[in-house]
Amino acid sequence: MALDDLKSALPGYAKDLKLNLGSVIGNSELPKQQLWGTVLSCAIASRSGIVLRALEPEARENLSEEAYTAAKSAAAVMAMNNVFYRTRHLLSDPEYGTLRAGLRMNVIGNPGVEKADFELWSLAVSAINGCGQCLDSHEQVLRKAGVDRETIQEAFKIAAVLQAVGATLDAEEQLAG
């Protein structure tokens, strides 16, 4: 299932999602690697098999092998980090914030692609996973690297739309099943 098929699968009540999906992917001004890395990492983070199966082939076509692997790595490491750091932040005991994390995150330091691209994908995944601490951290790194707010917002718009598309299509599948 390609992008057009994914849009066609959306029910009538989700017309805004259909329009937004076409806009955030089809009309994005992000460079190809940033766009498709964001799409792939967010499709994984959405936990929707429908969305992932629809968009992964085109992401694979548009990304180098290194970028493809890095986008999947961003989704994987942020799945862990978002739970960990969101939990530390939400606990009322601030002492957890002083403890060593003790989790392997080597890919963040050496992602195999430009650091800004990996940070953008990590920010988008963090938006889906709802980790404010990770969002702030990745946004600050991106801003220090000279990435403008419009680019950053484009990434979390993709995250928002893919998450909503996945939730909608998965719900429709369950209701039909």
From TrEMBL:
Signal peptide: none annotated. Residues 94-172 form the Carboxymuconolactone decarboxylase-like domain. Disulfide bonds join 131-134. One of its GO terms (biological process) is cell redox homeostasis. It catalyses: N(6)-[(R)-dihydrolipoyl]-L-lysyl-[lipoyl-carrier protein] + a hydroperoxide = N(6)-[(R)-lipoyl]-L-lysyl-[lipoyl-carrier protein] + an alcohol + H2O. Homotrimer. The active site is at 131 (proton donor), 134 (cysteine sulfenic acid (-soh) intermediate). It comes from Streptomyces qinglanensis. One of its GO terms (molecular function) is disulfide oxidoreductase activity. Its EC number is 1.11.1.28. It is an enzyme of class 1 (oxidoreductase). Belongs to the AhpD family. The keyword Ion transport does not apply. This is Alkyl hydroperoxide reductase AhpD. Antioxidant protein with alkyl hydroperoxidase activity. Required for the reduction of the AhpC active site cysteine residues and for the regeneration of the AhpC enzyme activity. SUPFAM superfamilies: AhpD-like. Keywords: Antioxidant, Disulfide bond, Oxidoreductase, Peroxidase, Redox-active center.
